[in-house]
């Protein structure tokens, strides 16, 4: 554990600020622009984790990073919700013990350290952007996160905060070797691994849509179930379902290289470091 009395950077913790406003009129609450400016500043300095309205009871909830409760109080000096009359305003330190697979509460590294902070997107080359976009949305459940009609850029995700998939339709005007490199990626193993809540249900959905399932659901020695499938262009993906039985945590599987496709070798989770 770090000593807060020692000089140097202090590790950041998570703090929760809750405000319960009771029966206050909307006109008595902070203006949306004020709240957005406060959020933007927290995001700029790497403190913001999440913020949103409370519904029952009415209010507002903010999760942010600070090194101590004293610093958290200083951060909140400019909070638009601070000082509102007839409100319950509370700040507590939060130590999450269990975090779901879809959440990421890891503290970001110090700004300017040169460390990688997130995986934003991976590219998948396709032949026809329009038909591929429809398939990824209707069959796999992706949503458009960003799109540029002029350049044909499309970024898809499975929800806020998730890494994105960029669909890339090669264009000859890119020139060489870029055009040939992109077209050469079509119909190969992407190395992308998805997690699913039901490998069996996913298989049914894929087959109903006419997708090619290259390896049906298979229970692996590490306890999970894997499934391999292709999009209409032959780009291959792996999906896995975690084991439902209780037990020690198991690492996610790694995709087989293209040279191993079609073999009966079972997937194994990576060895833990000793």
Keywords:
single chain, 274 residues, alpha+beta, Alpha-Beta Plaits, 2,3-Dihydroxybiphenyl 1,2-Dioxygenase, domain 1, 3 domains, four-stranded antiparallel sheet, 5 helices, 12 strands, 17% helix, elongated
Secondary-structure class? alpha+beta
List SSEs in N-to-C order.
EHEEHEEHEEEHEHEEE
Q: Name the CATH superfamily classification of the largest domain.
A: Dimeric alpha+beta barrel
What overall form do the CA principal axes indicate? elongated
Number of strands: 12
Question: How many independent structural domains?
Answer: 3
Quaternary class: single chain
Helix content: 10-25%
Compile the SSE list and pairings:
Elements: E1 13-20, H1 32-44, E2 48-54, E3 59-66, H2 69-75, E4 88-94, E5 121-125, H3 129-138, E6 143-148, E7 153-157, E8 164-168, H4 178-184, E9 189-195, H5 199-208, E10 212-219, E11 225-230, E12 236-241
Report what the structure shows.
The protein is of the alpha+beta class and 274 residues long. The protein has 3 domains: 13-94, Dimeric alpha+beta barrel (Alpha-Beta Plaits, 2-Layer Sandwich), CATH 3.30.70.1060; 119-186, 2,3-Dihydroxybiphenyl 1,2-Dioxygenase, domain 1 (Roll), CATH 3.10.180.10; 187-257, 2,3-Dihydroxybiphenyl 1,2-Dioxygenase, domain 1 (Roll), CATH 3.10.180. It has 5 helices and 12 strands. The longest helix has 13 residues, at 32-44.
């Amino acid at each position: 554990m770090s000593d807060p009395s020692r000089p140097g950077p202090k590790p950041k913790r998570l703090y929760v600020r809750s405000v319960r406003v009771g029966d206050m009129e909307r006109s008595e609450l902070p203006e949306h622009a004020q709240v957005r400016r406060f959020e933007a500043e927290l995001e700029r300095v790497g403190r913001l984790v999440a913020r949103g309205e409370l519904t029952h009871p009415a209010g507002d909830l903010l999760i942010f990073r600070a090194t101590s409760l004293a610093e958290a109080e200083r951060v909140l000096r400019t909070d638009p919700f601070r000082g509102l009359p007839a409100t319950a305003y509370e700040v507590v330190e939060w130590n999450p013990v269990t975090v779901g697979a879809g959440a990421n509460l890891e503290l970001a590294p110090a700004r300017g350290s040169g460390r990688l902070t997130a995986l934003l997107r991976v590219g998948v080359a396709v032949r026809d952007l329009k038909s591929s976009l429809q398939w990824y949305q209707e069959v796999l459940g992706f949503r458009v996160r960003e799109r540029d009609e002029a350049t044909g850029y499309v970024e898809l995700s499975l929800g806020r905060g998730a890494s994105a998939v960029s669909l890339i339709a090669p264009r000859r005007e890119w020139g060489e070797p870029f055009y040939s490199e992109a077209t050469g990626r079509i119909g190969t193993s992407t190395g992308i691994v998805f997690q699913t809540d039901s490998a069996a249900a996913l298989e049914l959905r894929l087959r109903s849509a006419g997708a090619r399932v290259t390896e049906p659901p298979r229970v692996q020695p590490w306890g999970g179930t894997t499934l391999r499938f292709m999009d209409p262009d032959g780009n291959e993906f792996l999906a896995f379902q975690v084991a439902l039985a209780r037990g020690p945590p198991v690492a996610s599987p790694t995709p087989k290289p293209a040279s191993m496709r079609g073999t009966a070798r079972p997937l194994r989770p990576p060895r833990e470091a000793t």
